[in-house]
Write a structure and sequence with these properties.
single chain, alpha+beta, L-amino peptidase D-ALA esterase/amidase, seven-stranded mixed beta sheet, disordered N terminus
Length: about 400
Amino acid sequence: MLYFVGMKAESDFVQSGGVTSPQGFLAGATSAGIKYTDRRRLDLGILFSKVPCAAAAVFTTNKVKAAPVLLDRARLKKGTASAVVMNSGCANACTGEPGMADAVEMTELAARHVGVKPEEVLVASTGVIGVTLPMDRIRAAIPEVVLTLAGGHDLARAIMTTDTVPKEVAVKVGDYTIGGMLKGAGMIHPDLATLLVFLTTDAAVNVAFLRQALRKAVDISFNMVSIDGNGSTNDTVLIMANGMAGGKPITKSGNRAEVFQQALNKVCIHLAKESARDGEGATKLIEAKVSGAVSRKDARLAARTIVSSLLVKSAVHGSDPNWGRVLAAAGRSGAALVPEKMELFMGDTCVVKGGSPVTFDKKEVVKHLDGKEVFITLNLHLGRAEATAWGCDLSEEYVKINAEYTT
């Protein structure tokens, strides 16, 4: 259903929705034994559209880019794609020319399997850096991938590495649907991270607008998440629009563009929050909202620095209402601020007003910090700009996971 409130549109979440919720998309996954000998663990899969799609992507800003990123970036210059083959267990990064050859071969194998040209297929990989793909296992496994409507759920599990749960979503917007899935729980920091995000829609969308809409959605969602301050080599956010819902293509002008943008934002923000919630070793989701900034840039800087602060993360983990760490993070963020004007809330409780502490119920704040979702709100009282960022607490389990990642 679609509802209008002024120029805004509200979209409904689809129950058990994912990348195959939009018409014409199929998916499937299998176990190739890429990293683990346990063949019950899904680690290889394909996302496929019955018709060619307009396609756009945003990639890592890391100067060290994996072979799949380099290949996809080149192929997406034409703005079309029909399928993506993807794997977990091996990032195919820092693997030189052999790694690029393996990425190309993966697309050729998948193309043969689904019946399209190799240049219509993209590739995505995640896992350990500096290890080559076991192509003999992949060659044997790709023909085993069965594409179905329900296969999107298997595919979401197949791309997991240290994720504890698959992350999927879909929203219905009038006659069309937008679906998505995400992998990412570590090496997450603003301007993309260890994220593989695949978005699908059966809306007809002009490719120029699709690129613009994706950049805007990524900017307020995945670029506002920080789990551990580290970005990666394989980050990819891809959207495919096959137009099977019918209608004229959505372009950048008109109400339909705004409706599509809002729905895409909703999908991306939902997935971004799920990534932060499932951060490696995390027990709590942190949401930091900064308002009253002189510019959107400043609001983003402050919000991202707060959720990135190891001291803030540690305090949240211990349910310690150490609000000074929040102000210190904002103060070093580079955002313009006047300490005497700052107002800070933890949950619904004001702990700082006019830059000075106020009397508050410590037990009430601790109770909020004990919850699964922690809300930090900082008003700079300098302007009207605002931004929201998401992160998670820092636990002993995070160190354990990353101390043993390759062993």
